[in-house]
Predict the structure.
Amino acid sequence: MSRIIRYSFLFILAFASPYSYAQTELFKGYRIEGDELVFSFDRRDYKIATADTFSNIYDFEDLDIKGVVVAGEFNNWSKNDWNMTKIDENRYELRKKLSEFTDEFSWEFKFVINNVYWAEPAKEYSNAVRAFKDRYELPAYNLKMYTAYPDKEGNITFSLNGFPDAKKVVLSGSFNKWDEDLFRMKKSKDCWAITLKIRPGEYEYKFIVDGDWIEDPDNPLKRRNEFNEYNSFINIKAPKVFMLNGYLDAQEVILTGSFNNWSENEFKMAKTKSGWVATLMLSGGKYHYKYIVDNKWILDPDNAVKEYDGKGNVNSVCIVK
């Protein structure tokens, strides 16, 4: 039931925006909450099921659902391993940590009823893709996981001013493997806009206006692409709070790390009743850091994750995603 396509695993931040865009109802099967991926099954979203790829078709209303399993490329399409929890008479959920998934993958998945019947998603769903087996197209669809997706609670809004006569405007970029149809923008009085939930990181993108690819005219940041043209560029950052408990007698505490080239004076931490705190806006990735307490360099005593830097030093490690 699978098809292999490589793309980047993208997720989250907090970005103020004057616009909102409700996650389209055509995205089915999952959502992202904090550091968790939540698979969500609602029997009302499905009409038919099959016992296998070429078996008879069953009406969902005739199925007595005893349990639901998530099956996909991430677990070898097992019909038994990833059992969901029943929420109410119609809904089931399964929560998995994002850390359980690799950064580069092509996850397609389905829901399995009673460890036997494959729930067949409607092809109209934006994240429904044709199923393949041994390069042959199957008469079935899988749900596909996009970790950047429209959400009214998303962390960044893309907007394009003007183009009032355009029939269709699409946002395409490295966050969705340059898909030419998936992220259709919503027209308002003054502009076209879409709000996404997307992980911190650096991304390139363009708008497609009635088939014509254009850069973002309101974004001066751009990068040259393989066609010797330019893509618009954005660096999405997330707030990261650093806390050093104790050391209340210290006169000064500095936060330093790979995020500021180990500056010894740039990020002075604020003193609190219990210690010292600093909040930085960081792009996605892994960072090494230390605290400088009255000119003495120390590791973070509350962070067990440490790494050598290749120069004989041991640093504390934080990951923003």
Remarks:
- The radius of gyration is 23 Å.
- Residues 1-24 have pLDDT under 50 and may be disordered.
- Residues 25 and 247 are 51 Å apart (CA to CA).
- The longest strand covers residues 230-245.
